[in-house]
Amino acid sequence: MQKNKVYYSRLKRKFSLTFMLIALIPLFLISWSSSRFYQTTCLQNTINSMKNAVENRNRVITFFLDHQKELLGELMRLHSYDQFKNQAELERIFAAITPGGIVDLGVIDATGQHISYVGPYKHQLMGKNYGKEPWFHEVMVNGSYISDIFLGFRNVPHFIVAVADPLRKWVLRATINSEFFYGLIRNTQMGERGDAFIVNRMGEFQTPSRFGGTILPKEERAVLAVGEGTDVKRIDGFVYVTSRLKNGEWLLVNKAEVRSVYETFRQARNLDTLSILIAALVIVTSSILITRYMVNRIEESDREKAVFDSQMLQVEKMASLGIMAAGLAHEVNNPLQLITDQADWIRELLEEEEPAKVCHLDEYRKSAEKIKLHVSRASSVTHRLLGFSRKMDAEKGAVNINNLVDEVLSFVINEARVNDITINKHLQDDIPAIMTDSAQLQQVFLNILNNSMDAIEKNGAVDITTRADDRNIIIEFKDNGPGIPREIMENIFDPFFTTKEPGKGTGLGLSISYHIMQTLGGKIEVRNGEEGGAVFTLSLPIIHLGARR
């Protein structure tokens, strides 16, 4: 039985492991692949958002710069050079365009002399000559110019938009509100470590970086090597999306930290991991419970098969015993009959003799009677054996329970006398006969009686009681042995369960009796008596001849 326990334990582990692997491996593979897909998708979506933002800002900034040039050109077409030279007229014109982001407005002649100005830096700029400034030469050559961010005479970071008249006789210059310009960039920043800025070809910041500095760090210079259109690069854990501005002179950069980009992914992954763990826990628990149920059913089936096999073995043994008993009875009956005939013949011969001539005639007669008496006893034993053998093949028939009890007692009465065990019968006289299998019921009675006498061992008593009510016949076997411990009471009818020493019991007697009673439509119960000992109570339904169940 210990080996069976190890076998079923291993079976549980194998089934549990198999179920877990079948369920968990696909679960983890799906989780891993979906995590990788989501991670890639998350980064790609962020890059797409950054590209959209950069392209949008590119269009807005390009439109803004072009608009400033067009605005200055339109002002030059609407107003004459003399009007711009007039301070009052220039102030009127400036007042009309101030909401567009222009800080100041200045008029410069062909020599670079600042001849008219309106704005906050009048004292610093009036009278200044820009004839040697690179931007002045470029605007006089190309007709328009947009500068990088520079300090200039005012010593304040700014950039200018300048437009020359068609004849290159004078220049209208405007300084752009840098804060207004910076505002076009800031809202493209992504995350706490994200940044957005504009640099020129030299890597100099044209708009401030949120992390400070005036020039692009060396490790980020690789972003400058871009062509036309929008470009994407990954450098040291950052994603850079770039786009050219101002005819390629400026580079709009949108920078995002990959780790920050994955923050939403990590949150989703943590939630996914929690879900996976919960699912895995459910799978593991379900696998264990299902496996336990399956193996328990297998174990129960194996036990039932073992009981059935044992019952079949018992049936075969009983059938063999019945055949042997029948053969033995026939073999013994023949010489017994011969002995009886010879004893009768001796008696007849003694009757013919004269008493005076035969010594010890009475003793001969008594001896002949004793021979017949013992032959009669031997004959009764052989007839019981014949009766037992006939019942081996019997099916259901009318059975009187009291008579069956007497028959069973005839098999154990001698053993009981040897061990000083008294068997007391309390049989109801008018108990009805019922339809049942006497052979199987006889086996149940024998099993219970044998268990009771084994428990008593010596010097005890067994009380057998029969009674009937409206529906059932009750047979009760009560002994005055040690009783059954409460902790093993539930297992008393389990197959192979025994409290006897090895070799003295198979643990199948009561289990077989339990199944026989179920087969016969009855039931068997056990309890400890109030005064000690065990009490087995059998209940059989009253079924009369010809009745159907």
Tell me about this structure:
With 549 residues, this protein is α+β, with helices and mostly antiparallel strands. The protein has four domains: 2-172, 2-Layer Sandwich (Beta-Lactamase); 181-263, Profilin-like, CATH 3.40.1840; 300-393, Helix Hairpins (Orthogonal Bundle); 394-541, Heat Shock Protein 90 (2-Layer Sandwich), CATH 3.30.565. It is 52% helix and 18% strand. It contains twelve helices and 16 strands. The strands form four sheets. The protein has a five-stranded antiparallel beta sheet, sandwiched between helices. The chain has a five-stranded mixed beta sheet with strand order 11-13-14-16-15, covered by helices on one side. A hairpin with a 3-residue loop joins strand 13 and strand 14. Helix 1 runs antiparallel to helix 8 and helix 11 packs antiparallel against helix 12 (509-519).
Quick overview of this protein structure:
By secondary structure, the protein is α+β, with helices and mostly antiparallel strands. It is built from 12 helices and 16 strands.
Q: How would you characterize the largest beta sheet?
A: 5 strands, antiparallel
What is the number of helices?
Answer: 12
CATH-level-4 superfamily name of the largest domain = PAS domain
Taken from the alpha-carbon principal axes, the silhouette is rod-shaped
Specify the helix fraction band: 40-55%
